[in-house]
Design brief:
The structure is a homodimer of 210-residue chains. Chain A has 210 residues and is α+β, with helices and mostly antiparallel strands. The first copy, chain A, is 18% helix and 28% strand. In chain A, a hairpin with a 7-residue loop joins strand 6 and strand 7. Chain A starts with a strand and ends with a helix. Chains A and B meet through strand 4, strand 5, helix 1, strand 7 and helix 3 of A and strand 4, strand 5, helix 1, strand 7 and helix 3 of B.
């Protein structure tokens, strides 16, 4: 089943990226081995799927995040989880910013409410509803970073064309190097300590406090 | 500031454990190094804090999960994130159940809504509001598993006495070996495949479907 999922009404998704479709999968995204985490591509420019991302470093989760005050979903709620490759994470911990070959993965999962003994709030369903990658590869992309959308974890992902809303939104509002570090609870204090927050973000925050 | 946080009205917490207090912290839970992940204890029986748990394997997040139909929090929402030590995760992927020395960590973070460019839904705040551990240590605990509550990541955690509601709830409802695998989206399908789901859980699910 191909699942058309509008993750975000307007611009870019919550903790990371853009909206995208996905082939719903059931639990096939857990791998025992942990292969290399550097980005790899097909000859046509597609990106190979980041098979082991669930074993990378977890950054955060959100639910129904939106940059529009209007609800995106009338009938359901959606979690998004963000992961980064361990090598990039370790550099961030040391420097407060991202090295070349950083790969950030955003997955979306349906939020369920009633299930087993749970009566309220939301937990995450087994079906993976969307997967996107934000990758820094300075030799490959003119603006250093690129977005890829995946229809499945078994197929290469397609490059989102430069100029798409996710690029402009991340460039304008990302707290560190076009990424939404303001939503990553363990990384934001590091960026504050190391003074790597972008001027655009600092200006927005100062305006917000006035 | 000591933050008294009632995570759950009744029994045990959402994806894992019991309710507990916590000294609110700001972003001090990100470590660059990844020390050994085996459980370690003080002479008095307290557990040493699992310092590097944010670099372990992420299992899931929930928000405001409750086993009671009544709201737990009138004025705020709370995320909980669950991590497990990588060694135990790899065994689970192979066998569908937990080995000795499994350490599961649940952290709670306040859910924020307005912040930066976010207008709706919820993202996770930088302050860590609660931390609990569920550990399997067969030589140490008569029932194999124990719960520990931590007031801070800098201090040892206290053993929750056997017989407390979290033990009975996990024993009665945990899908695999007293753990809430039914709420871990990448592990539930593995347990189904490997037929390691508990009889109690399977009976509950069969009853639910009637």
């Amino acid at each position: 089943m191909r699942f058309r999922l509008v993750l975000m009404a307007g611009v870019c998704l919550s903790a990371a990226f853009c909206s995208m479709p996905f082939v719903a999968q059931t639990g096939s995204d857990t791998r025992a081995a942990a292969p290399a985490t550097e980005p790899a591509y097909e000859k046509n420019g597609d990106m190979k799927p980041p098979a082991s991302y669930r074993e990378w470093i977890y950054l955060t989760s959100g639910i129904d995040m939106s940059y529009s005050p209007k609800p995106d979903f009338a009938d359901h709620s959606m979690f998004d989880n963000v992961f980064v490759n361990p090598e990039a994470y370790r550099t961030f911990v040391q420097t407060g910013t991202w090295p070349d070959k950083t790969v950030m993965v955003l997955e979306a999962r349906m939020a369920q409410s009633k299930g087993s003994i749970n009566q309220r709030g939301h937990f995450q369903g087994t079906d993976l509803m969307a997967l996107e990658v934000h990758v820094k590869d300075t030799a490959r992309f003119p603006d250093k970073w690129a977005f890829f959308e995946f229809d499945s974890l078994d197929k290469p992902g397609s490059l989102v064309p430069q100029g798409a809303p996710c690029y402009t939104c991340h460039a304008a509002h990302g707290a560190v190097d076009t990424t939404f570090v303001q939503f990553y609870p363990t990384l934001l204090p590091l960026a504050q300590q190391k003074k790597t927050l972008s001027q655009a973000y600092l200006a927005e925050e100062a305006k917000e406090k006035k």
